[in-house]
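pinging the channel bc i need a second pair of eyes. not urgent but kinda urgent?? the chain im working w is below, pasted from the shared doc
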Amino acid sequence: MSTPGVDVGQRRPANAQRVLCLDGYTVPTEPGGLSGHAPSSDAIGYGITASTAIRAGLSAAGFDLVRVESAASADHDERVARLRWLLRSYERVLDVVSASPPDVVFSFHAFSVFPTEIRRMLLDLGLEVPLVGYTHGSHWDPTDTFRSETYPRMELLDLANLQVLDRVLLVSDHLRATLWDSISAFNAPLAKSLDAKCEVVGLPLDVERIDAYRTDERWERPTIVFNHAPVASKNPELFVAVMRRVLPRYDVQVLFTRRFPPTGPGGAAVAALAADFPGQVALGNDMSLPAYYRALWMAELQVSTATHESLGVSTLEAMHTGACCILPRRGSYPEITGDHPDVLYEPGARELEERLIYFLEHPDRAQAVAADLQVAAAQYAPAIVVRRVAAVLDALCVPDETAVSERPLWRLPPAAAPAP
């Protein structure tokens, strides 16, 4: 099949399961990119890296992947470019499903190209094609203030996008429990039916890309990385307040990897910190992925002050690169760190400052904790996560009556695999 704007990738055997893959919207991070609001973490980070790792794993596993691609927008405002990309994506989806329907539709982001619209296309065309999609956050997570503030009064649409999916892929057990609690309070039968469709599969780190930029170099000063989005739920003001107490006393560097717009959350505080400590504060301003990963390999510490976290890709990336992470005991952090007692602090400035100073004064202990975290991060390697995603797709693609012995071995879960 050859459809304008559609990449069918490497051709597979005639009996390979065809998967229509819908990526989320992404933007370039190089200088001269689109202007407007600071891009979201999925658009600038995991929407590129994790999505790439999933596609590569599924393709290697034998799925025939069909991708819809929209031409780059001529708009210079990132917000307009994103909306135009969405409109074109719906047209490309229609091109595929009307010309040669896939065996399954896989959406990387259920709040990007809306599953409700794809379901409407399929229903209008009289097609029974299963839909599978990730949700990386939710209006139904009370701590997800970015979702509720950016798209107010859309909580029912958010819920509808999940309800029309045949399988909902979740990034953490924490998110599953949060959705259950919130949706149950709204509609218990709906929560029960939705939870029955949920699969906690995690999200893969793009290990190949991260390792490609590995270096043994170090910064001139011990470096503390703040690699979180410039949004209120990441609480950058708290981090800045603590660093104002630490920087005068310790010869260390702070690296902000993201751009903090002046009028956005933390923007004024970050700018003032950089002005007051010019030799100790580095502003990455949305670093390119090569520069970002190289910087992580060079850093000793990573800190989070988040009030919301569904998974924590930026923290997992820091864990993989050998940083000692200091994280609040909330959200998914206990889950991804194995509830490490030296890593997790009770939220607040006092305990964060104490934990940070301890690791600055005990670098050997920081290195030991970092080694523990590297082991914990390994559970998010593509070989592990993509296998779970593939199993979900396979269960929908392969008829139940197909004998297990006839299914490819890569699609069979390990005999003693723990629950995701």
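so Residues 181 and 269 are 35 Å apart (CA to CA). and The chain is about 45% helix and 10% strand. — does that match what u expected or am i reading it wrong
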